Amino acid sequence: MRISVNGNEIEFVFTRKERGICSHSGDCYDDCIYIVSKHPRLFSRIPRSLALDALCATGGWTKKELEETSDNELYIKLVWVAANNANDSDSLIGYVSGY
């Protein structure tokens, strides 16, 4: 896995296995925890403010909900969103963008 931060965009480059682990029918939460736990240094490069903005922009959570969330929980959500975006476009690259 690789993670790049470019302005207000976070780019995740997955292996096929990682993408499949985090994007499948059913509950993916524990699977996303596994991926985040394998790459703690990669995730620590993502500014919290960007993670909040990017996740809020998806419409799945309010800013208030996200502000009350731990960094690890934000990373889990980011991986899930990015893996699903990659899967939807049949790509190994998933993006999550802020405002």
Describe this structure in words.
The longest helix has 18 residues. With 99 residues, the protein is α+β, with helices and mostly antiparallel strands. The protein has a three-stranded antiparallel beta sheet. Helix 4 packs across helix 6. The protein has one domain.
Query: What's the structural domain tally?
Result: 1
CA-based shape: globular
Q: Report the major sheet.
A: 3 strands, antiparallel
Q: Bin the helical content.
A: 40-55%
Total helical elements? 6
- Tell me the Rg in angstroms: 12 Å
pLDDT average, as an integer? 95
Q: How far apart are the termini?
A: 25 Å
Number of strands: 3
Describe the secondary-structure layout:
Elements: E1 2-6, E2 9-13, H1 16-22, H2 29-38, H3 40-43, H4 48-57, H5 63-67, H6 71-88, E3 93-97
Antiparallel strand pairs: 1-2, 2-3
Helix pairs in contact: 1-6, 2-6, 4-6
Note the main attributes of this structure.
99 residues; alpha+beta; 3-stranded antiparallel β-sheet; 6 helices; 55% helix
Short description:
With 99 residues, the protein is an alpha+beta fold. Helix content is 55%, strand content 15%.
